[in-house]
Amino acid sequence: MIFDIFITENDKSKTDKTIQASKPEMGYKAVKAYTRFFHDKIYYRKVYYINTENIPENCPLMVVSNHQNCMCDPLGLLMSMRARQNVKTKVITRANIFSNSIVSRILRYLGLIPIFRLEQDGAENLVHNNETFEEVENELLNDGTVIIFPEGKHQNKRWLGDFSYGYLRILFKAAEKSNFEKELFVLPSCNHYSNYFGIQEDLLIKFGNPISLAPYYELYKTKPRTAQRKVNALVRNQMEQLMLNINDLDNYTSIDYLRETYGIKYAKDNGYNPNVLPEKLISDKEFCRKLEDIKEKDENVIHSIYNDVNIFDEKTRELNIKDENFGKISSFFKVFVEGLLFIVFFPLFVFSLIPNILVVYAPKVINSKIEDRMMHNTIVFIMSLLCTMPILYLLIFALVWILKGSFIYALIYLICLPFLGIFAWNYNKAWKSWRSQLRYKKLLKAGKLNELVKLRTKIYESLDKLLK
User: Among residues of the chain, what percentage have pLDDT more than 70?
Assistant: First the structure.
């Protein structure tokens, strides 16, 4: 989403123009409050904003983060910045989304700042970045807040890509404009998701410790690149400690599959609650680190496990069952009771789904044409929560008011609509899980899972032995 920054010789000229840090207008506050409700209460099942006490106040602050889930990453950071609500947080984002003049005005109003990139926008447009650099520098010098993603683009896996030094050029350039009298801070952070795709997942935003650039001002005056490298090393080190960073990309699929399956058992065995995302993150980091240790000691052993994992994953996908079915063997009576409950609550599911059907399915039409899956949740959020829901819900509210002749009745129904949508989503999710469990029991009874049961047992026992 964010860029590789290009700074030209023209950028070296100083300016006397002063821009006050943007203040949040009433309209902006209303939009943010509306977005926060849907973001924190509807879109995600649970959000965790951790170490927010580390966010410094009343000073120039640039927040940097890993980037994996397109617009959802800056949105999560924006919602977590309660400590700096006195200024409008700015987010540097790619310029191509500003192509429409009306959209551009809206994005600008919301605090987004365009950056032009060589590959996407062409060399002839890079000169426009001078305006962006000046705007960001002045925001910082007036104690503003800027969010940036130094990887330059969103990744499609849980790992930390290479950093552009553009964010540090901006910071030190701003310090230079103040004759190095202004103390600027950079705050490392990370975002982490229980699942990238779908609603009602969990989100974690975690902050590190703010890093002051002041101790590096003298070094920057004589060796600017060295100063940038030193600060960048500190920032990157903190971000690697905060996030789940799976560096073994050759075996990423196997490692991530184990993290989501065996990793639940590992968390429980080591005193972590796998249903609490901050605890699961700590457990996952430990687990992945131990897999790396095993690989360093005996690469053949770990590759044998990864090969078994790939076979197991492929076979279960073919049979449309999940790993959790193997570890959770329910009695026939429990499966039967759950089936009855689905029948009992089916009318409520239909009642909940009908007014929300466009909210659920409209984004799928667009996402079917977008190859980059990391863009899908952005489409879901923008279309469903910021477009379809308010328009559709208001129309339903007006219709119920007219038909029932009661404003209070229509208002109560309006308030219930998003929660009915959550019920419909979770009902469908539980239904799929129940069907997978029923399919597993049938296949197991028919003797078609014997080899898979043995393979899973082999994988789990091998990991138990190695991890001890």
Answer: 91
Output DSSP code: residue 216.
G
Q: How many CA atoms lie within 13 A of 27 on its CB side?
A: 4
Q: Cα(165)–Cα(230) distance, rounded to whole angstroms?
A: 11
End-to-end CA distance of the chain: 41
pLDDT number for residue 122: 61
The CA distance from 372 to 67, in Å, is: 14
Q: 9-242 adopts what CATH topology?
A: Glycerol-3-phosphate (1)-acyltransferase (3.40.1130)
CA distance 291 to 262: 12
DSSP 85-152: TTS--EEEEEGGGG-SHHHHHHHHHTTEEEE--HHHH-GGGGGGHHHHHHHHHHHHHTT-EEEE-TTS
Q: Residue 274, exposed/middle/buried by CB under 10 A (0-12, 13-18, 19+)? A: middle
**What band does 362 get if pLDDT is binned at 50, 70 and 90?**
confident
Q: What is the pTM of this model?
A: 0.87
**What residues does CATH 3.40.1130.10 cover in the chain?**
9-242
